[in-house]
Specification:
Blueprint lengths: L2 H9 L6 H6 L10 H15 L21 H11 L7 E7 L2 H13 L10 H17 L2 E2 L6 E6 L14 E5 L2 E9 L19 E3 L5 E3 L14 H13 L3 E6 L8 E14 L8 H12 L3 E9 L2 H8 L2 E11 L5 H11 L3 E5 L12 E15 L2 E8 L5 H6 L5 E2 L2 H5 L3 E13 L13
Parallel strand pairs: 1-2, 1-3, 9-16
Antiparallel strand pairs: 3-4, 5-9, 5-10, 6-7, 8-9, 11-14, 11-16, 12-13, 12-15, 13-14
Helix pairs in contact: 1-3, 4-6, 7-8
Length: 440
Protein backbone atom coordinates (compact mmCIF):
# COMPACT_ATOMS: atom_id res chain seq x y z
CA UNK A 1 0.00 0.00 0.00
CA UNK A 2 1.31 3.43 -1.04
CA UNK A 3 0.84 5.32 2.23
CA UNK A 4 0.66 8.85 0.76
CA UNK A 5 -1.80 7.79 -1.92
CA UNK A 6 -3.94 6.04 0.68
CA UNK A 7 -3.72 9.06 2.98
CA UNK A 8 -4.81 11.30 0.12
CA UNK A 9 -7.91 9.15 -0.33
CA UNK A 10 -8.71 9.37 3.39
CA UNK A 11 -8.27 13.16 3.40
CA UNK A 12 -10.65 13.37 0.44
CA UNK A 13 -13.40 12.05 2.70
CA UNK A 14 -13.20 15.37 4.57
CA UNK A 15 -13.78 16.25 7.38
CA UNK A 16 -11.52 13.60 8.95
CA UNK A 17 -9.51 14.59 12.03
CA UNK A 18 -5.76 13.98 12.33
CA UNK A 19 -6.31 11.21 14.90
CA UNK A 20 -8.65 9.24 12.63
CA UNK A 21 -6.37 9.84 9.64
CA UNK A 22 -3.25 8.70 11.47
CA UNK A 23 -5.06 5.71 12.98
CA UNK A 24 -5.54 4.17 9.53
CA UNK A 25 -1.75 3.86 9.23
CA UNK A 26 -0.81 3.03 12.82
CA UNK A 27 0.75 -0.25 11.73
CA UNK A 28 3.02 1.52 9.21
CA UNK A 29 4.95 3.75 11.60
CA UNK A 30 5.79 3.74 15.28
CA UNK A 31 6.77 6.24 17.95
CA UNK A 32 4.06 8.77 17.06
CA UNK A 33 0.56 9.32 18.38
CA UNK A 34 -2.19 8.86 15.83
CA UNK A 35 -2.83 12.60 16.00
CA UNK A 36 0.82 13.43 15.21
CA UNK A 37 0.95 10.76 12.49
CA UNK A 38 -2.19 12.14 10.85
CA UNK A 39 -0.88 15.70 10.97
CA UNK A 40 2.41 14.62 9.38
CA UNK A 41 0.59 12.75 6.60
CA UNK A 42 -1.67 15.74 5.95
CA UNK A 43 1.39 18.01 5.64
CA UNK A 44 3.20 15.49 3.36
CA UNK A 45 0.19 15.18 1.02
CA UNK A 46 -0.17 18.98 0.83
CA UNK A 47 3.53 19.37 -0.01
CA UNK A 48 3.45 16.65 -2.67
CA UNK A 49 0.34 18.09 -4.27
CA UNK A 50 1.71 21.66 -3.98
CA UNK A 51 -1.38 22.76 -2.08
CA UNK A 52 -1.86 24.97 0.94
CA UNK A 53 -1.95 22.96 4.15
CA UNK A 54 -5.26 23.14 5.99
CA UNK A 55 -6.86 21.32 8.91
CA UNK A 56 -10.54 20.32 8.68
CA UNK A 57 -12.80 23.16 9.82
CA UNK A 58 -15.70 20.89 10.79
CA UNK A 59 -16.13 18.07 13.31
CA UNK A 60 -14.75 14.71 12.16
CA UNK A 61 -17.61 12.59 10.85
CA UNK A 62 -15.78 9.34 11.67
CA UNK A 63 -15.28 9.72 15.43
CA UNK A 64 -17.89 12.49 15.84
CA UNK A 65 -15.37 14.60 17.69
CA UNK A 66 -14.60 12.03 20.39
CA UNK A 67 -10.84 12.09 19.75
CA UNK A 68 -10.83 15.72 20.92
CA UNK A 69 -12.22 14.61 24.31
CA UNK A 70 -9.45 12.37 25.63
CA UNK A 71 -8.64 14.80 28.45
CA UNK A 72 -12.30 15.28 29.35
CA UNK A 73 -12.91 11.54 29.66
CA UNK A 74 -9.70 10.99 31.64
CA UNK A 75 -10.51 13.79 34.08
CA UNK A 76 -13.98 12.30 34.65
CA UNK A 77 -12.46 8.88 35.40
CA UNK A 78 -9.93 10.39 37.81
CA UNK A 79 -12.68 12.35 39.57
CA UNK A 80 -14.76 9.20 40.08
CA UNK A 81 -11.73 7.42 41.54
CA UNK A 82 -11.10 10.07 44.19
CA UNK A 83 -11.02 8.40 47.59
CA UNK A 84 -10.18 4.98 46.11
CA UNK A 85 -6.71 3.61 46.80
CA UNK A 86 -5.30 1.76 43.77
CA UNK A 87 -2.04 1.08 42.00
CA UNK A 88 -3.16 -0.31 38.62
CA UNK A 89 -6.00 0.46 36.24
CA UNK A 90 -7.47 -0.38 32.86
CA UNK A 91 -9.77 1.57 30.57
CA UNK A 92 -12.40 0.01 28.34
CA UNK A 93 -14.71 1.69 25.84
CA UNK A 94 -18.24 0.96 24.64
CA UNK A 95 -18.05 2.28 21.10
CA UNK A 96 -21.31 3.59 19.59
CA UNK A 97 -22.45 1.50 16.60
CA UNK A 98 -22.49 4.65 14.47
CA UNK A 99 -18.75 5.23 14.99
CA UNK A 100 -18.03 1.60 14.11
CA UNK A 101 -20.17 2.02 10.99
CA UNK A 102 -18.40 5.27 10.09
CA UNK A 103 -15.05 3.49 10.47
CA UNK A 104 -16.11 0.81 8.00
CA UNK A 105 -17.44 3.40 5.56
CA UNK A 106 -14.14 5.32 5.65
CA UNK A 107 -12.06 2.24 4.99
CA UNK A 108 -14.33 1.25 2.12
CA UNK A 109 -14.40 4.74 0.56
CA UNK A 110 -10.61 5.11 0.84
CA UNK A 111 -10.05 1.56 -0.41
CA UNK A 112 -8.07 0.55 2.68
CA UNK A 113 -7.49 -3.07 3.75
CA UNK A 114 -9.92 -4.17 6.47
CA UNK A 115 -7.08 -5.06 8.83
CA UNK A 116 -5.06 -1.88 8.23
CA UNK A 117 -4.28 0.53 11.02
CA UNK A 118 -5.85 0.47 14.45
CA UNK A 119 -9.43 0.18 15.63
CA UNK A 120 -11.03 3.26 17.16
CA UNK A 121 -11.74 1.42 20.42
CA UNK A 122 -8.11 0.38 20.90
CA UNK A 123 -6.84 3.88 20.27
CA UNK A 124 -9.42 5.48 22.54
CA UNK A 125 -8.64 3.07 25.39
CA UNK A 126 -4.95 3.80 25.10
CA UNK A 127 -5.15 7.58 24.82
CA UNK A 128 -7.62 8.03 27.68
CA UNK A 129 -5.71 5.40 29.68
CA UNK A 130 -2.41 7.25 29.35
CA UNK A 131 -4.03 10.38 30.69
CA UNK A 132 -5.67 8.55 33.58
CA UNK A 133 -2.25 7.17 34.53
CA UNK A 134 -0.69 10.63 34.53
CA UNK A 135 -3.55 12.14 36.55
CA UNK A 136 -3.54 9.41 39.21
CA UNK A 137 0.12 8.37 39.29
CA UNK A 138 -0.78 4.72 38.63
CA UNK A 139 0.10 2.08 36.04
CA UNK A 140 -1.98 0.26 33.47
CA UNK A 141 -2.54 -3.48 33.95
CA UNK A 142 -4.28 -5.48 31.22
CA UNK A 143 -4.52 -8.70 33.24
CA UNK A 144 -5.96 -7.91 36.68
CA UNK A 145 -6.11 -4.18 37.42
CA UNK A 146 -7.20 -2.79 40.75
CA UNK A 147 -9.81 -0.65 38.99
CA UNK A 148 -11.51 -0.77 35.61
CA UNK A 149 -13.14 2.29 34.02
CA UNK A 150 -15.73 1.59 31.31
CA UNK A 151 -16.48 4.55 29.07
CA UNK A 152 -19.88 4.66 27.37
CA UNK A 153 -19.44 7.11 24.50
CA UNK A 154 -23.03 6.77 23.39
CA UNK A 155 -24.18 8.01 26.81
CA UNK A 156 -22.21 11.26 26.39
CA UNK A 157 -22.09 12.19 22.70
CA UNK A 158 -21.41 15.91 23.17
CA UNK A 159 -18.55 17.86 24.71
CA UNK A 160 -19.21 18.81 28.31
CA UNK A 161 -21.90 16.13 28.64
CA UNK A 162 -19.94 13.63 30.75
CA UNK A 163 -22.52 12.76 33.39
CA UNK A 164 -21.71 10.07 35.97
CA UNK A 165 -23.57 7.33 34.11
CA UNK A 166 -21.22 7.66 31.13
CA UNK A 167 -18.27 6.36 33.19
CA UNK A 168 -18.70 3.11 35.10
CA UNK A 169 -15.82 2.65 37.55
CA UNK A 170 -15.43 -0.91 38.80
CA UNK A 171 -13.16 -1.51 41.79
CA UNK A 172 -11.87 -5.08 41.78
CA UNK A 173 -11.69 -7.05 45.06
CA UNK A 174 -8.67 -7.04 47.34
CA UNK A 175 -7.46 -10.11 49.23
CA UNK A 176 -5.91 -10.89 52.60
CA UNK A 177 -4.31 -14.30 53.22
CA UNK A 178 -3.46 -15.88 56.56
CA UNK A 179 -3.98 -18.86 58.83
CA UNK A 180 -6.50 -19.14 61.62
CA UNK A 181 -6.67 -21.20 64.78
CA UNK A 182 -10.07 -21.95 66.30
CA UNK A 183 -9.64 -22.23 70.05
CA UNK A 184 -13.23 -22.97 71.09
CA UNK A 185 -15.56 -25.75 70.02
CA UNK A 186 -19.00 -25.32 68.49
CA UNK A 187 -17.93 -22.52 66.19
CA UNK A 188 -18.50 -23.14 62.45
CA UNK A 189 -16.10 -21.73 59.89
CA UNK A 190 -18.71 -19.59 58.10
CA UNK A 191 -22.09 -18.15 58.95
CA UNK A 192 -24.65 -20.96 59.33
CA UNK A 193 -28.21 -19.72 58.73
CA UNK A 194 -30.93 -21.37 60.81
CA UNK A 195 -32.38 -24.34 58.94
CA UNK A 196 -35.85 -23.67 60.33
CA UNK A 197 -36.31 -19.99 59.52
CA UNK A 198 -33.81 -19.77 56.64
CA UNK A 199 -31.87 -17.05 58.40
CA UNK A 200 -34.76 -14.64 58.89
CA UNK A 201 -34.92 -15.17 62.67
CA UNK A 202 -38.71 -15.26 62.47
CA UNK A 203 -41.52 -17.78 62.32
CA UNK A 204 -45.28 -17.58 61.92
CA UNK A 205 -47.17 -17.01 65.15
CA UNK A 206 -50.25 -19.06 65.94
CA UNK A 207 -52.59 -16.08 65.81
CA UNK A 208 -51.01 -14.69 62.67
CA UNK A 209 -48.07 -12.39 62.15
CA UNK A 210 -44.49 -13.26 63.05
CA UNK A 211 -42.53 -14.03 66.18
CA UNK A 212 -38.87 -14.92 66.94
CA UNK A 213 -37.82 -18.34 65.62
CA UNK A 214 -37.91 -20.98 68.37
CA UNK A 215 -34.98 -22.87 66.85
CA UNK A 216 -32.45 -20.03 66.73
CA UNK A 217 -33.96 -17.66 69.29
CA UNK A 218 -34.43 -15.00 66.64
CA UNK A 219 -30.74 -14.69 65.70
CA UNK A 220 -31.19 -16.28 62.27
CA UNK A 221 -28.11 -18.47 62.84
CA UNK A 222 -27.54 -22.02 64.04
CA UNK A 223 -24.51 -20.74 65.96
CA UNK A 224 -24.00 -17.29 67.41
CA UNK A 225 -20.45 -16.95 66.11
CA UNK A 226 -18.32 -18.28 63.28
CA UNK A 227 -14.69 -17.93 62.25
CA UNK A 228 -15.95 -15.71 59.43
CA UNK A 229 -17.83 -13.42 61.81
CA UNK A 230 -14.85 -13.20 64.15
CA UNK A 231 -12.27 -12.33 61.47
CA UNK A 232 -13.84 -10.44 58.57
CA UNK A 233 -15.22 -7.28 60.27
CA UNK A 234 -11.78 -5.76 61.09
CA UNK A 235 -10.57 -6.53 57.56
CA UNK A 236 -13.67 -5.03 55.98
CA UNK A 237 -13.30 -1.94 58.13
CA UNK A 238 -9.56 -1.55 57.42
CA UNK A 239 -10.12 -1.80 53.66
CA UNK A 240 -13.32 0.26 53.70
CA UNK A 241 -15.10 -2.23 51.45
CA UNK A 242 -18.73 -3.06 50.72
CA UNK A 243 -18.62 -6.77 51.59
CA UNK A 244 -16.18 -9.43 52.81
CA UNK A 245 -16.21 -13.09 51.76
CA UNK A 246 -14.36 -15.80 53.70
CA UNK A 247 -12.63 -18.64 51.81
CA UNK A 248 -11.02 -21.48 53.78
CA UNK A 249 -8.74 -24.36 52.75
CA UNK A 250 -11.40 -26.90 53.64
CA UNK A 251 -13.10 -26.73 57.02
CA UNK A 252 -13.00 -28.56 60.32
CA UNK A 253 -16.11 -29.94 62.02
CA UNK A 254 -18.04 -27.48 64.17
CA UNK A 255 -17.07 -29.38 67.33
CA UNK A 256 -13.37 -29.60 66.39
CA UNK A 257 -10.61 -27.23 67.38
CA UNK A 258 -8.16 -25.92 64.78
CA UNK A 259 -4.74 -25.70 66.45
CA UNK A 260 -1.06 -25.96 65.57
CA UNK A 261 -0.18 -24.49 62.20
CA UNK A 262 -3.70 -23.16 61.69
CA UNK A 263 -5.83 -23.42 58.55
CA UNK A 264 -5.10 -21.23 55.48
CA UNK A 265 -7.81 -18.76 54.55
CA UNK A 266 -8.40 -15.78 52.29
CA UNK A 267 -10.76 -12.89 52.93
CA UNK A 268 -12.00 -11.27 49.72
CA UNK A 269 -13.11 -7.65 50.11
CA UNK A 270 -15.53 -6.33 47.53
CA UNK A 271 -15.06 -2.76 46.27
CA UNK A 272 -12.32 -1.73 48.72
CA UNK A 273 -11.52 1.95 49.00
CA UNK A 274 -8.22 1.03 50.67
CA UNK A 275 -6.00 -1.80 49.43
CA UNK A 276 -2.89 -1.65 51.58
CA UNK A 277 -3.65 -2.05 55.27
CA UNK A 278 -0.70 -2.65 57.60
CA UNK A 279 -1.08 -6.39 58.08
CA UNK A 280 0.71 -6.68 61.43
CA UNK A 281 -1.65 -4.09 62.94
CA UNK A 282 -4.62 -5.76 61.26
CA UNK A 283 -3.59 -9.11 62.73
CA UNK A 284 -3.59 -7.60 66.21
CA UNK A 285 -6.99 -6.02 65.64
CA UNK A 286 -8.54 -9.30 64.52
CA UNK A 287 -7.14 -11.21 67.49
CA UNK A 288 -8.43 -8.58 69.88
CA UNK A 289 -11.84 -8.59 68.15
CA UNK A 290 -12.09 -12.42 68.30
CA UNK A 291 -11.42 -12.29 72.05
CA UNK A 292 -9.69 -15.68 72.37
CA UNK A 293 -12.19 -17.73 70.38
CA UNK A 294 -10.14 -17.45 67.17
CA UNK A 295 -6.70 -16.13 66.41
CA UNK A 296 -4.93 -15.44 63.12
CA UNK A 297 -1.31 -15.21 62.10
CA UNK A 298 0.82 -14.63 59.03
CA UNK A 299 -1.52 -12.11 57.43
CA UNK A 300 -0.35 -11.04 53.97
CA UNK A 301 -1.92 -9.15 51.11
CA UNK A 302 -2.65 -11.61 48.32
CA UNK A 303 -3.68 -11.79 44.67
CA UNK A 304 -7.04 -13.03 43.39
CA UNK A 305 -5.41 -16.32 42.35
CA UNK A 306 -4.92 -17.13 46.03
CA UNK A 307 -8.66 -17.74 46.44
CA UNK A 308 -8.69 -20.67 44.04
CA UNK A 309 -5.38 -21.87 45.41
CA UNK A 310 -6.72 -22.03 48.96
CA UNK A 311 -9.99 -23.60 47.85
CA UNK A 312 -8.54 -26.15 45.41
CA UNK A 313 -4.95 -26.96 46.47
CA UNK A 314 -4.89 -30.52 47.90
CA UNK A 315 -3.98 -30.54 51.56
CA UNK A 316 -2.90 -33.17 54.02
CA UNK A 317 -4.11 -32.80 57.59
CA UNK A 318 -2.96 -33.91 61.02
CA UNK A 319 -5.51 -34.67 63.74
CA UNK A 320 -5.43 -35.35 67.46
CA UNK A 321 -8.39 -37.36 68.76
CA UNK A 322 -9.77 -38.50 72.09
CA UNK A 323 -11.25 -41.97 71.60
CA UNK A 324 -13.65 -43.94 73.76
CA UNK A 325 -13.91 -47.74 73.36
CA UNK A 326 -17.03 -49.85 73.95
CA UNK A 327 -15.00 -52.48 75.81
CA UNK A 328 -11.61 -52.65 77.54
CA UNK A 329 -8.58 -52.51 75.21
CA UNK A 330 -5.01 -53.35 76.16
CA UNK A 331 -1.96 -51.41 75.01
CA UNK A 332 -0.57 -54.19 72.83
CA UNK A 333 -3.84 -54.55 70.92
CA UNK A 334 -3.98 -50.82 70.25
CA UNK A 335 -0.33 -50.81 69.18
CA UNK A 336 -1.01 -53.67 66.73
CA UNK A 337 -4.05 -51.89 65.30
CA UNK A 338 -2.09 -48.67 64.84
CA UNK A 339 0.75 -50.56 63.13
CA UNK A 340 -1.71 -52.25 60.75
CA UNK A 341 -3.30 -48.93 59.75
CA UNK A 342 -0.04 -46.98 59.46
CA UNK A 343 0.59 -46.14 55.79
CA UNK A 344 -2.43 -48.05 54.55
CA UNK A 345 -5.06 -46.93 52.04
CA UNK A 346 -8.64 -47.10 53.27
CA UNK A 347 -11.89 -47.25 51.33
CA UNK A 348 -14.54 -44.89 52.60
CA UNK A 349 -18.15 -44.79 51.53
CA UNK A 350 -19.77 -41.39 52.16
CA UNK A 351 -20.30 -41.27 55.95
CA UNK A 352 -23.75 -41.39 57.50
CA UNK A 353 -23.23 -38.00 59.13
CA UNK A 354 -22.73 -36.17 55.80
CA UNK A 355 -24.73 -38.43 53.49
CA UNK A 356 -27.61 -35.94 53.41
CA UNK A 357 -25.48 -33.19 51.86
CA UNK A 358 -22.85 -35.04 49.80
CA UNK A 359 -23.05 -37.43 46.90
CA UNK A 360 -22.84 -41.09 47.90
CA UNK A 361 -19.68 -42.67 46.58
CA UNK A 362 -16.70 -44.74 47.65
CA UNK A 363 -13.24 -43.20 47.61
CA UNK A 364 -9.75 -44.18 48.69
CA UNK A 365 -7.58 -42.13 51.05
CA UNK A 366 -4.15 -42.85 52.51
CA UNK A 367 -3.25 -42.83 56.20
CA UNK A 368 0.25 -41.36 56.00
CA UNK A 369 1.02 -41.84 59.67
CA UNK A 370 -0.87 -42.88 62.79
CA UNK A 371 0.18 -43.19 66.42
CA UNK A 372 -1.67 -43.61 69.67
CA UNK A 373 -1.71 -44.62 73.33
CA UNK A 374 -4.19 -45.52 76.03
CA UNK A 375 -5.22 -43.21 78.85
CA UNK A 376 -6.97 -46.14 80.51
CA UNK A 377 -8.44 -49.37 79.19
CA UNK A 378 -11.53 -47.59 77.78
CA UNK A 379 -9.98 -44.32 76.62
CA UNK A 380 -7.10 -43.43 74.35
CA UNK A 381 -5.57 -40.71 72.24
CA UNK A 382 -4.73 -41.01 68.52
CA UNK A 383 -2.78 -38.77 66.19
CA UNK A 384 -3.35 -39.22 62.46
CA UNK A 385 -1.68 -37.59 59.49
CA UNK A 386 -3.81 -38.32 56.47
CA UNK A 387 -4.46 -37.46 52.85
CA UNK A 388 -6.85 -34.59 52.21
CA UNK A 389 -10.44 -35.74 52.39
CA UNK A 390 -9.78 -38.59 54.82
CA UNK A 391 -12.74 -38.97 57.19
CA UNK A 392 -10.84 -39.52 60.42
CA UNK A 393 -13.83 -40.02 62.69
CA UNK A 394 -14.91 -42.87 60.45
CA UNK A 395 -11.33 -44.19 60.33
CA UNK A 396 -11.78 -44.74 64.06
CA UNK A 397 -15.39 -45.94 64.23
CA UNK A 398 -15.69 -47.80 60.93
CA UNK A 399 -19.08 -46.09 60.40
CA UNK A 400 -21.03 -49.36 60.39
CA UNK A 401 -18.71 -50.86 57.81
CA UNK A 402 -18.60 -47.86 55.49
CA UNK A 403 -14.87 -47.39 56.17
CA UNK A 404 -12.52 -50.36 55.68
CA UNK A 405 -10.19 -50.93 57.49
CA UNK A 406 -10.78 -48.95 60.70
CA UNK A 407 -9.49 -48.85 64.28
CA UNK A 408 -12.72 -50.38 65.55
CA UNK A 409 -12.67 -53.04 62.84
CA UNK A 410 -9.08 -54.12 63.51
CA UNK A 411 -9.59 -54.15 67.29
CA UNK A 412 -12.98 -55.83 67.09
CA UNK A 413 -14.21 -53.28 69.62
CA UNK A 414 -16.50 -50.31 69.00
CA UNK A 415 -14.71 -46.97 69.08
CA UNK A 416 -15.90 -43.37 68.93
CA UNK A 417 -14.12 -40.03 68.67
CA UNK A 418 -15.21 -37.86 71.60
CA UNK A 419 -13.00 -34.85 70.87
CA UNK A 420 -11.16 -33.85 67.72
CA UNK A 421 -8.46 -31.28 67.12
CA UNK A 422 -6.87 -30.42 63.77
CA UNK A 423 -3.22 -29.59 64.36
CA UNK A 424 -1.85 -29.03 60.84
CA UNK A 425 -3.10 -28.26 57.33
CA UNK A 426 -0.41 -28.34 54.66
CA UNK A 427 -0.31 -28.53 50.86
CA UNK A 428 0.29 -32.04 49.57
CA UNK A 429 3.05 -31.07 47.16
CA UNK A 430 3.61 -27.34 47.64
CA UNK A 431 2.85 -24.68 50.25
CA UNK A 432 -0.30 -22.60 50.29
CA UNK A 433 1.67 -19.40 50.80
CA UNK A 434 3.70 -19.54 47.59
CA UNK A 435 5.11 -15.99 47.07
CA UNK A 436 3.75 -16.04 43.53
CA UNK A 437 0.24 -15.66 44.96
CA UNK A 438 1.09 -12.98 47.51
CA UNK A 439 1.50 -9.27 46.95
CA UNK A 440 4.85 -7.69 47.68
Amino acid sequence: MDVLSAARRVIAEDPVCDACLGRQFADRSFGLTNDDRGHALRVAVALEDDEDFAEPDEQCWVCEGQTDRYDEWAETVAAQLEGVEFETYQVGTRTPPLIEENEALLRDAADLPEDAGELFKSAFNREVGKRVGRLTGTEVDFDRPDVLALLDLEAAPFEGDLSSHAVDVQVNPAFVYGRYRKLERDIPQTEWPCRECGGSGKQLAEGGGEEPCDHCGGSGYMYEESVEQLTTPPILDAMDGDEALFHGAGREDVDALMLGTGRPFVVEVKRPRKRNPETDALEREINEFADGAVEVEGLRLATHEMVERVKELPASKTYRMDVEFDAPVDADALADAVAELDGTTVEQYTPNRVDHRRASRTRERTVYDIDGHLEDERHGELEVHGEGGLYVKELVSGDEGRTEPSVAGVLGVGAEVTALDVTAVEGEDEPFDDPEYLRE
